[in-house]
Amino acid sequence: MTASYSIDAAAASDAPGLIALRTGVVAEGEFLVSEAGEFPASLDAVIARVRMTAPNGGPPNRCMFVARARFQTVGVIEVQPGAFRRNRHVGHIEVLVRADWRGKGVGRGLLERVLSWSTTSAVTKLSLAVYAHNMPAIALYRSCGFTEEGRRVAEYRFPDGSFRDDLLMARTVGSTPL
To answer: Is the pTM of this model over 0.90?
Structure first.
């Protein structure tokens, strides 16, 4: 039996679920750069962030999609453009999937939704960073057409003193430059 979930554009009403999702993934301590307490997210700040995405009135190179199952937020993908005119065509991706929903197609569904969105967006390249030891995520990204562009060796130091490399991946999409 396959897991049942839906993916839609994020709405302001998703803010509490988005905060809970991020808090849960951060608490795992393994997949995000930020640690507990380093990513303050008030309800108002998350609502404002959602409202800055297309189709909620935001620019055509910024989006956020939410995966929902049984009225709960189980995943999110956000694309943020580069900060400058010369890199606004690049969409920087962040994907979060709740631990109990990993391996059930949610991450792939979110990525495919962004790839579909990108064909009519102002984005011509999607990029992301992933810990080099996160092999399931890397395999997913590769299967969706992302390739390695670089590696930042020992970019992050974990509380136990060990270091992690950051793998930079990207793929070309769309065709309309800003």
So the answer is: yes
